[in-house]
Each structure stands twice: as structure tokens, then as C-alpha cells.
């Protein structure tokens, strides 16, 4: 029996563990638990007030995008992943991931409450701004299949839809689009601005790097266990999804930074997006498409999943909860 399945009475016994990678990620996720109010965000208020209109626009734009999309990821997990996976260790991790997405949503609410940001403007942007709305509609199209009808996970078509949903959310939304935003958010700290906001983003990145690793492992496991999915046609479709996502992100970034700010413009961010897309393609077994260098070398430890261990050990915000540290 593989990792896919919908039997209610299956997957009720945790041991012996079949997928050690899922259990390891759950243990790490629990150790990484944090809460937004542990960071004194109010200390960044003076920075926010002295920033240019374009810089404040960028922060508002990011919050506008992240806030609803953290909750959208939870719908994708609840409707599109959890019901079709049987391994209890995977269910444990998914439950923790859903809590983390809720915690991220509350983190962005904390930013909205602390900084003088127009909440209505921030909330409406994901509907009002075409490039942002287009990205959201792209994601919604994949989860709609799961929310409006049930997949037959025993069929090739059902398994393909399951993989499409994982690629849309884990690889594209969390592994490329979110990271593009994280880089912009953390770029302020490179100029000694919004340092506490940067720490908040560090913790979110740390969570998301595990989400990405889980999604990648799940995709590769399902492909390995289901040879019927391993066709050139399906592979080309998956690759094209990622290339389409890059094009959407490039347009979005031109709206995010129409004029550029100190040390950062849309072309710089979009080179980073292409670099990220190549890493994701390689992790899925494809050749890189864009072959560009990473313009934001300071982000390297955060976006390369293979360097996760170093990231945890080298980042000053990488404290682990006592439960893990004392075990």
C-alpha cells in the first residue's frame, strides 16, 4: 500500500513508520514552534514612517498578498492533500503545517495592526490588482477540482490532479512566489530597516522551507509509487505550469516595485524568481530553464532546501522550543 488512499480506518497506527522523512519533518516543525508577539514589531515603527512612499507600497503590497494566500494554502491542504494521504506521519505533519499557516496569517495581521497600513486597501488588493488576482485565480483553479468534487485517487486522472494541486501550492505558491516576496521583505533589513519585521519573516521562511521539503518529498514519493504518472506528456505539463507561474510572478513584481527602491527593482527580483524556478525544476528532476545566477546571495541559505540544516544552525532566530532541545 502506498502513501495515497482514502480509507478512514487506514493510517490509524503511527508505528512502524513507513515514511521517515515525514516524521522527521514533523519533529522539526514542532521544535520550530513560535508566536508572532515574541517579536517587538513596534520597534520598527520609526523605520516605517521614514520610508518612501514606494517602500511603504512594497510592504503593503506584500502583506496584501501573503495574508489571504496563507489561508488559501490551508484550503489546499485540507481539501486537496489531507483527505487523499493515508500515512499517519504525513497527517501529523499536515496538521502542524495547517497550524503554521494560521500562525503566519496572524503574523501578517500583527503587521497590519502595528504599522499605519490601510487595512481595506491591503485586503482589497488581491481582488483589485490584476496581476495579484491572476496569481490567485491560477491557484484557485487547481483547488476548485477538490472542493467541488471528490477525486478518485485510484485512477491515473485522479492522481494527476493530486500532483497538479501539490505543484500549484507547494512548488509554485510556497516554493517560488512566497520566496520572491520573502526576499523583498528581507531586503529592507539589508539596509538596516525593519529589522524586527525581518526576524518575523525569518521564522516564516523557516516554516515554509519545511512545507516546501514536505511537498517535494510527497510529490516524488507519489511519482515513485505510481509509474502510470511517469509520462513525458504529464512531465511537460508540470514543467509548463512552473514556467507560466514565472511569467505571472514577473508581472506581479512590476506592480510591486513600479519604480524601484534603493538596491532593488523588478528586474532584480525577477532574476531571483528565475533562479528559484530553476532550483525547483531541478528538484523535480528537470533541467534548469533559465540558467541565471542568484542575485540575492544573502538569501541562499533560506531558499535552497538542501541547505536547511545549515540555515537552522546559522540563523540567530533559529531557536528551538524546549520540548525538542531537552529531549
CATH topology: Ribonucleotide Reductase, subunit A
- Strand tally, please? 0
The overall pLDDT average reads 82
**What is the H-and-E element order?**
HHHHHHHHHHHHH
Output the structural class.
mainly alpha
Would you identify the CATH H-level superfamily? Ribonucleotide Reductase, subunit A
CATH architecture: Orthogonal Bundle
Query: What portion of residues is helical?
Result: 55-70%
What would the principal axes of the Cα set say about the shape?
globular
Sheet bearing the most strands, described? none
CATH class: Mainly Alpha
Terminal Cα separation, in Å? 33 Å
Number of helical runs? 13
- Give the C-alpha Rg: 19 Å
Which residues sit in consecutive blocks of at least 5 with pLDDT less than 50? 302-327
Tell me the strand percentage band: under 5%
Write down the oligomeric state: single chain
Question: What does it look like?
Answer:
- By secondary structure, the chain is mostly helical.
- The protein has one domain (20-321): Orthogonal Bundle (Ribonucleotide Reductase, subunit A), CATH 1.10.620.
- The protein is built from 13 helices and no strands.
- The protein has helices at residues 20-31, 45-50, 53-80, 88-114, 119-128, 130-148, 156-190, 195-225, 232-256, 266-283, 300-303, 308-314, 322-325.
- Helix 3 runs antiparallel to helix 4, helix 3 packs parallel to helix 6 (130-148) and helix 4 runs antiparallel to helix 8 (195-225).
- The protein is globular.
- The two termini are 33 Å apart.
Amino acid at each position: 500500500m502506498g502513501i495515497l488512499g482514502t480509507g478512514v480506518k487506514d493510517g490509524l497506527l503511527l508505528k512502524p513508520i513507513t515514511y521517515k522523512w515525514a516524521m522527521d519533518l514533523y519533529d522539526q516543525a514542532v521544535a520550530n514552534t513560535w508566536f508572532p508577539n515574541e517579536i517587538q514589531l513596534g520597534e520598527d515603527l520609526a523605520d516605517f514612517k521614514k520610508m518612501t512612499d514606494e517602500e511603504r507600497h512594497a510592504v503593503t503590497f506584500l502583506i496584501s498578498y501573503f495574508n489571504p494566500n496563507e489561508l488559501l494554502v490551508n484550503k489546499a491542504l485540507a481539501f486537496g492533500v489531507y483527505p487523499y494521504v493515508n500515512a499517519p506521519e504525513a497527517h501529523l505533519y499536515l496538521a502542524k503545517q495547517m497550524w503554521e499557516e494560521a500562525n503566519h496569517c496572524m503574523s501578517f495581521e500583527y503587521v497590519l495592526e502595528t504599522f499605519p497600513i490601510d487595512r481595506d486597501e491591503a485586503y482589497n488588493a488581491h481582488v483589485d490588482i490584476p496581476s495579484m488576482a491572476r496569481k490567485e485565480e491560477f491557484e484557485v483553479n487547481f483547488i476548485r477540482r477538490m472542493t467541488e468534487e471528490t477525486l478518485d485517487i485510484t485512477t491515473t486522472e485522479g492522481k494527476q490532479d493530486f500532483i497538479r494541486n501539490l505543484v500549484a501550492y507547494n512548488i509554485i505558491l510556497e516554493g517560488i512566489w512566497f520566496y520572491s516576496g520573502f526576499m523583498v521583505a528581507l531586503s529592507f533589513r539589508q539596509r538596516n530597516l525593519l529589522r524586527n519585521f525581518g526576524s518575523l519573516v525569518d521564522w516564516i521562511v523557516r516554516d515554509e522551507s519545511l512545507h516546501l521539503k514536505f511537498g517535494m518529498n510527497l510529490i516524488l514519493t507519489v511519482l515513485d509509487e505510481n509509474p502510470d504518472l511517469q509520462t513525458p506528456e504529464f512531465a511537460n505539463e508540470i514543467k509548463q505550469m512552473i514556467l507560466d507561474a514565472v511569467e505571472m510572478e514577473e508581472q506581479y513584481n512590476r506592480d510591486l516595485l513600479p519604480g524601484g527602491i534603493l538596491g532593488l527593482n523588478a528586474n532584480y527580483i525577477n532574476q531571483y524568481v528565475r533562479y528559484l524556478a530553476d532550483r525547483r525544476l531541478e528538484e523535480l528532476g528537470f533541467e534548469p530553464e533559465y540558467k541565471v545566477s542568484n542575485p540575492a546571495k544573502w538569501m541562499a541559505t533560506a531558499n535552497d532546501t538542501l541547505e536547511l540544516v545549515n540555515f537552522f544552525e546559522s540563523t540567530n532566530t533559529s531557536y528551538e522550543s524546549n520540548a525538542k532541545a531537552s529531549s
